[in-house]
Amino acid sequence: MFDRPVRILVLGGDGVGPEVIAQAVRVLEWFKDRRGLRLELTEMPYGLSAFRAEGRILPDRTLDAVKAADAVLFGAIGGDYAGVPIDVRRDGSILRLRRELGLFANLRPVRHWPALSAACPLREEVAGGADIALVRENTGGLYFGTPRGIEDLPDGRRTAFNTQRYASDEIERVARFAFELARTRSARVCSVDKSNVLETGVLWRETVTALHRREFPDVSLSHMLVDNCAMQLVRAPTQFDVIVTDNMFGDILSDGAGAVSVSLGMLPSAAIGAIRPDGRPAALYEPVHGSAPDIEGRGIANPLGAILSAALLLKHSMGQPEEARLLEQAVGMALSAGARTADVASAGERVLGTTAMGDAVLAALDVAQPG
Ligand code: IPM
Ligand code: MG
Description:
single chain, alpha/beta, two-stranded antiparallel sheet, 12 strands, about 20% strand, globular, binds 3-isopropylmalic acid, binds magnesium ion
């Protein structure tokens, strides 16, 4: 599809990030060696280890490489940041990277894995067949709005404030992403807001409705209030196809929806921006689980969120939806064969470490590989 190898920048980051990303890298190397995909992987310093070595979480050369890459494969950030000044911390945060790259749509697929039914907190009749694409607005809203701060009041009390602000074009571009995605799935979008209380919710609903009428009459659109959506995601998750919502609501709902997939360790994400001149979007792929410092270095973290993020990379940055499906199929096969990390194991099941789970997926790829 493209005339040169896709340049993938690997940032393991903090906590279990490097451990799970190492497995995603093995999988991508398998696609390079065995399926002839043209990709180049480069790793750069990022996170606490970079801070200890050179005083910056996100060194300039790493930021330059981030901007030059076709796609970023990101582990996690977070952990013992007590000694790191707040400005250095903000300067290297994942929020900054999303904003810097203009990654306005955060795609968080959530699906039920039949092999994990026994470990799923939701009954099979409730969650069986659930397959949701949650699209979170990723560069605006409450997490970026100004003014923001903590101030002292004249009477000795303190006050803290943040600003929820959206412009119609910010809403429109993420909604367009959701509608286009819906066309590749079951063509249903549920837009989630709090329009009964917040002006940002009123504008959100108006803007999504107008775009739908103008450009996507073939997609079915419904609206839901966010509090109800939180309930519906665990009560009847199969009703959803694509969900589109603002930054904070998407942050919260995506963790909640994780119950469908048993563990946050199973959830991948793709943060996608505008299409660049070469036809590829700016993009960063990241497991949703975060750094999990409590299990760092023990080799027990679930690498499937990272591996499934690599599948999103194959689809969205390499234009290889068939290869992405092959990888998702291999994950399903590994689970069906009984491969479990601790976070998805039921009582009595044998538990694998991070590398062994990577081995199980690679073995399944060898079996699943067509031709
Ligand atoms: C996520 C995380 C981040 C977010 C944190 C680590 C800033 O919770 O990716 O969902 O709020 O976006
Ligand atoms: Mg979150």
